[in-house]
Amino acid sequence: MKIIIKKGRELSKKELYFxxxxxxxxxxxxxxPVEKELEELRDEMQSIFFFIKDKGRVxxxxxxxxxxxKYLGKAYNILGIGNIISIEKKKGYGTIxxxxxxxxxxKRKKTALGFTxxxxxxxxxxxxxxxxxxxxxxxxxxxxxxxxxxxEKGLWGIYYEGKDKFISHVLRTKSIVKIPCMHW
Length: 184
What we know:
alpha+beta, 7-stranded mixed beta sheet, 6 helices
C-alpha cells in the first residue's frame, strides 16, 4: 500500500482527470460534466491531495483545502476536509485515508472541518473526528447570491479542533458562518 500526498499544482493531468471523474460519479451521480468538475479543480491548486494506492491502483482519495474564514471579527485559517471517496467500499481504504489526513492536520494543530450527512457522520466519528449536529445550518458557502448561499446548509459538521479553537467559538455563539469559497 502506498500513500501519496501532493499539492494540487503537483498533480498530473491524468490524476486531475481521475479525481474529477470519480468525484462526479460519487457526488453528482454522473450528471455533472467531468469538464466542469475539472474547471472547478483549477481552484484547488493550493489544496493538499491524499491518495491511497494498492497494487498500483487508487483505492481512496480526498483533499484538505486551506480556507480563511472571518468570524465575529477574527480570521481563522482552517483546512476544509473534502471529496473523501473510496473507490472500493468496506475494504478499510477510507479509514486509512482519514487516518493519514488526520496525521497531517493534527501534526500542524490546524482545525479541519468538513460536512456530511448523518449516516456518514458515524464513519468519521469511528475514525476519530468529532461529528456535531449542532453545526447543522450554521455554515454556508458565500457565492455572493443569497439564493445559492442557503442551498449549502443543513449538513453535519465533522471536525478536528486545532489550537485556534474555532469550532468551540462557533458552538458558543449563534451567528452564521460564511465560507468564502466554492464548496469543498
